[in-house]
Every structure is written in structure tokens, then in C-alpha cells.
Design a protein that fits this description.
The longest helix has 34 residues. By secondary structure, this protein is α+β, with helices and mostly antiparallel strands. The N terminus is likely disordered. It has a 6-stranded antiparallel β-barrel with strand order 8-9-10-13-12-11.
Length: 311
């Protein structure tokens, strides 16, 4: 038995830390946009309104929750897993809770209040809101949550792929969340899913639709006749599309805002994620450099400890 305070034990601890850091990067490089818990993708399904999703259907969907004193944590917004310690959400979700200590992220949820063996919770290390977010117009309504500790991917917790450029027309798109089922309804306890149609920009901005309020950094999606839409509580969640010949899901939009819920000619508005690839890649690159510098420091410490022991 090795004493925990011995030099060999110290080296083992540092080696384990290095392995864990390397494993985190390896997990980030895993295949994205797949749904291991679901046998196959049903391309023939057509959703008229929202319905209960199957457990594991959308393994990148996250519940972002705020701690309320005397009550505990409650769901505020959705989020999307893009790496083992990075989430995307809508900037307007942050509101007055800008301190990361107020938040937690819950992964692998189906029922909002019933955790399974694969459900995982993480506290938040940092919140990065887009520097040009405009609350009045919802322009640049995007934010990143950095976790205190990375998550381990499994069949029910997976990252989604970032959008290719350009996205082809042969796609099927969905929205998900625990938001309200209608404007004045209650939030849903079971994760909901709905298939949506993405409308061209000129349709979104027609005078009898949004009258020019949809900028180039946004798009609208839903149903022209209403009845299929995101609502309060869905903000920050994903709009994802599956390319038939690739069978992977890509994050195309972040749920942002809308006029009411499910109204005709007033589909939901989503952040056009393709316009933020440089912003995302800049953050992820900086994070990768930080991890690499941390790994280099661990290697130096291990070499120093090995040299000291050999004396």
C-alpha cells in the first residue's frame, strides 16, 4: 500500500489529473449529433402540435435552473450541449441572474422533476453573454455557460453538431423544451418536441408577419397557420435539423422570442447560429489553449517530481 502523501502517490495524482484533462479533450472530439438511446430516426413522422419526446431523444437538451432561496432550483430556460463543459443558451435568459453561482445545469432530463440514473448536474463556472446583445430587439441573443467540471457523455447525454455551411434543403427540423403548451398554460413536466418549418427571411418580415423585425442574425420557424411553436420556458433551447444522407443533428438555431405562442403568421424567432461560428470558435479556441497550458504545467510538475525522486 502506498502512503497517500508519498512522492509516488503525488506523481500518480498528477498523472491522473493529466489523464482526466486529456480525456476531456478527447470527449469533445467524439462524434456529435447522434442519439444512441434511439434506434433509428423516423423521417416519416409529421407533428401537428407538440408531443412528449421519448427519453434520450434529444441528448443535448439541458435544463438551466436558478436557485431560489427557500424553494430550491427551478427551471428557467433551455440550453444545448456543444462540448463536455460548454453550453449554449439565449442571452435574455440571464436577466438579473448574472452571477454563475445562482445557476446549475441538469443533463439527461426527461421529466423535469424526476432524475434517472444517467441524469447529471453541474454548477456553472462562467457566463459569457454576447457583447452586442440588445435586450429591446433581441439582437445577438446568445450566451455561453462554462461548467465548473466537464460532463461525461453517455447514451442520454451527447453534444450536438455545430451547423455546416451552407445547410442543404433536404432537412427535417425540430424544437424541444419544457415550456408552456400555450400562451397562458403551465410549463410541461415532460420534454416536448415538435417539427417546424423554417421560413425565408422575406416571409418572416412581411407586414402581416413581423414587419421587418427579423434581422439577418435571426430566422423564424414554426407553422404558418400557428399551433406549432416554442413558448415561455423554451428560450435558450435548440432548433435542430437532420440531414438525411448524414443522419446527424445540427444546431441551426437558439430559441429566442416571438409574438405570443402558436399564433398564425407569428412563428417563433430563433438565433441564426451560422452567423456566430467565429464568435463560438474564438471562445472554444481560447478554452482549448487554456487546457493545453494547464496540461503543459502538469507535465512540468511530473518531470520535476520525477527528477527530485531520482536524486
Amino acid at each position: 500500500m502506498i502512503n497517500r502523501s508519498s512522492p509516488l502517490a503525488v506523481i500518480s495524482i498528477f498523472s491522473l489529473a493529466l489523464f482526466c484533462a486529456a480525456s476531456s479533450l478527447a470527449r469533445d472530439g467524439n462524434e456529435c449529433g447522434t442519439r444512441p438511446a434511439i434506434d433509428e430516426i423516423d423521417y416519416n413522422n409529421r407533428i401537428v402540435g407538440g408531443r412528449n419526446a421519448l427519453p434520450g431523444s434529444w441528448p443535448w437538451q439541458v435544463s438551466l435552473q436558478v436557485k431560489q432561496f427557500g424553494v430550491g432550483y427551478h427551471h428557467v430556460c433551455g440550453g444545448v450541449v456543444i462540448t463536455s463543459n460548454t453550453l449554449l443558451t439565449a442571452a435574455h435568459c440571464i436577466k438579473k441572474w448574472k452571477n454563475p453561482e445562482y445557476w446549475r445545469a441538469v443533463f439527461g432530463l426527461h421529466h423535469l422533476y424526476r432524475h434517472q440514473y444517467y441524469t447529471t448536474e453541474r454548477h456553472i463556472k462562467a457566463i459569457i453573454i454576447h457583447s452586442h446583445f440588445k435586450r429591446k430587439t433581441y439582437e445577438n441573443d446568445i450566451a455561453l455557460f462554462q461548467l465548473q467540471d466537464p460532463i461525461t457523455f453517455n447514451d442520454y447525454i451527447q453534444p450536438i453538431c455545430l451547423p455546416p455551411s451552407p445547410l442543404g434543403n433536404d432537412t427535417i427540423c425540430y424544437i424541444t423544451g419544457w415550456g408552456r403548451s400555450h400562451e397562458k398554460g403551465e410549463k410541461k413536466k415532460l420534454l416536448q418536441e415538435a417539427q417546424v418549418h423554417i421560413f425565408p427571411q422575406h416571409i418572416c418580415n412581411r407586414y402581416d408577419w413581423y414587419g421587418g423585425a427579423v434581422t439577418k442574425n435571426m430566422f423564424c420557424a414554426g407553422s404558418e397557420n400557428g399551433g406549432v411553436d416554442s413558448c415561455q420556458g423554451d428560450s435558450g433551447g435548440p432548433l435542430m435539423c437532420c440531414i438525411r444522407n448524414v443522419t446527424k443533428y445540427y444546431l441551426i438555431g437558439i430559441t429566442s422570442f416571438g409574438r405570443g405562442c402558436g399564433r398564425p403568421q407569428n412563428p417563433g424567432i430563433y438565433v441564426r447560429l451560422a452567423n456566430y461560428r467565429n464568435w463560438l470558435e474564438s471562445f472554444l479556441k481560447n478554452r482549448s489553449n487554456t487546457i493545453n497550458n494547464h496540461n503543459g504545467l502538469i507535465l512540468l510538475i511530473i518531470r520535476w517530481m520525477t527528477f527530485r525522486i531520482s536524486l
